[in-house]
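Students often ask why inverse folding is considered easier than folding. One informal answer: many sequences map to the same fold, so there is more than one right answer. In these notes we will look at a single instance of the problem. The structure comes first.
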């Protein structure tokens, strides 16, 4: 196997229909208040994981949670998974703060994410 290993799943984004109601449930579940709390995104840090709430699925139109695998080189890993049979859903783009993300689908249509912090 070539390429670089991932750093594991550290980020999971959940599409929600009501951000305020979801924020209350996830605050209770995780036992912490959100570190990022805005009208378009609410993010929690809990036990080394980032849990994000995206109203209406966000710009990607998510319909189910997406797990993001953290990688040291997002372009290389996206090329590696597409060469192995994955299909790019959302190309690499900067979401702010030096964070790059991309999504792809596996052969069964499951959506997976890649994330690189610069």
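Output (designed amino acids):
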């Amino acid at each position: 196997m070539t390429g670089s290993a991932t750093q594991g799943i550290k980020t999971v984004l959940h599409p929600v229909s009501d951000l305020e109601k979801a924020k209350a449930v996830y605050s209770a579940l995780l036992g912490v208040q959100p570190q990022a709390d805005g009208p378009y995104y609410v993010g929690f840090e809990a036990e080394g994981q980032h849990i994000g709430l995206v109203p209406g699925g966000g710009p990607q139109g998510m319909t189910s949670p997406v797990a993001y695998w953290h990688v040291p080189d997002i372009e290389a890993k996206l090329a590696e998974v597409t060469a192995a049979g994955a299909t790019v859903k959302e190309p690499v783009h900067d979401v702010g703060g030096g964070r790059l993300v991309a999504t792809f689908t596996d052969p069964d249509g499951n959506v997976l994410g890649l994330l690189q912090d610069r």
